[in-house]
Amino acid sequence: MLKILKKRDNLEYEFLPAALEISETPPSPLGKIIIWLIFSILAIAIIWACLGKVDEVAVATGKVIPDGRLKVVQTLEEGVITAIHVTEGQRVKEGDVLIELDSTMKNVEVQSLEKSLETAKLERDLLKKALLGEDIGKLVDEALLPDEVKDNLLRLTQLKDTQYTTEQRSLSLLVLQYEDQYNIEQSNVKKIEENLQLLREKEQNLKALIETGGVEAADLKKIEKNIEILEKEEKTYKELYEADAIAKKEWTDKLNELELAKKDYETQKAAVSQEKTTLELNWKNVNDQIKIMEKELGIQKITAEQAKSRLDEAKNGLNKIETQRGVSSMDLIVENDKKITALEGELEKARKSKQYQTLTSPVDGTIHGLASNTIGGVVTPAEPILTIVPDGTPLIVEATLLNKDVGFVEVNQETEVKFDTFSFQKYGTIKGKVEYISPDSVDDEKLGSVYKMKVKLEKNTINVDGKVNNISSGMSVSVEIKTGKRRIIEFFLDPIAKYAKDSIKVR
């Protein structure tokens, strides 16, 4: 019925004038449907944006590195490459020769130091043997040095020894001369002392004679005793004569004998006086001689002491020469020991430096980066020549985390690692876990202040078209860390809110 009515209305519109036909014809319902459809979609989108949530992801770019980093091979000194024994990607073992540098100058330096060290040791040994008075010729002959060097060392040692020997011989002769002179002076002192002792004994004897009166005084006493006896006898003879007991002649004879004895007494008394005078004179002479000789003894002792001083001085000079020779030799030996120690250190340093001209692998691993492939190229100290990835070194991702994301990332947080080498839409990603975030930021020329982050990979392989490929060091990656969820509407409202907030602050 409706169709019939609609058909009838359409026929009526067709017979109307064109203008009326347009105005009287009702609009098509398709437009309304489209409008309502658009409004419905917008409403659904707004509702979905308000209710729906999406993951917030912090993205950090970085690369795969060995855990513990690469082993960088460098040289300590500048050198010229003479041989390269490895290529990029080659496996090496610890101790394998990698690169050789020109060691010509190092060889010359080592040989020069070895000769200098041998010369210093020979000089020290020569000084020791010369100090002990041993033969040094055999030691020089056995030395592994040029003949010219050996001759110079021998002459130098002999010259030093000759100088000391000449001085020692001269002083030894002087000591002998002073010893003879001292002995003579001491002998003179002894002689004077002996003579002085004799004079003193003589003086004591004369003094004793003077005190006792001498020989004549003793005879005088004898005469006195004889006179006493004769006087008694004369008296007795006189009494006997007076008693007519004896003849007068006997008495007169005794009397004459007494008179004669008295005359002898007077004569002896004069002799005693003369003897005393003589003894006193002799005693005085002897006493004067003693004083003179005592002065001579004092002078002679001074002379002897002077001779002794000269002798001691000469002996001290001789001892000083001998001591000085020993000390000088010991000083030279000590100096040589110091020189030897210094040369040994320099030689060890030169040998080490020579060894450093041959660069060897510090670990078992794979050559990762070869900085120079040019024979004759010059390398400088501390310049990285090549790098080695050690065997068995686990791989980790070192990434750069932006300053705005660091507050939302924590250690042990799960991550998704996308490899630039392998399309993640086709080959997927590898899961990881945040192991480390640097405590302080570092400056990046392009990104500003950033933080270093390390991510441990769940596995070190990725499936590419059914083939398992190993993840290798140096691959660039993007690390995605889920930091939370956010309503979709917020992505549209946040810029508006931020703009509105900033516009309010603007003057």
UniProtKB/TrEMBL annotation:
Residues 72-389 form the YknX-like barrel-sandwich hybrid domain. The chain crosses the membrane at residues 33-51. It is found in: Cell inner membrane. Residues 175-353 form a coiled coil. Keywords: Cell inner membrane, Cell membrane, Coiled coil, Membrane, Transmembrane, Transmembrane helix, Transport. Residues 395-484 form the AprE-like beta-barrel domain. The keyword Amino-acid biosynthesis does not apply. It is a single-pass membrane protein. It comes from the Bacteria. SUPFAM superfamilies: HlyD-like secretion proteins. GO terms for biological process: protein secretion. GO terms for cellular component: plasma membrane. The keyword Acetylation does not apply. It holds the Pfam family Beta-barrel_AprE. Belongs to the membrane fusion protein (MFP) (TC 8.A.1) family. This is HlyD family type I secretion periplasmic adaptor subunit. It comes from Ruminiclostridium herbifermentans.
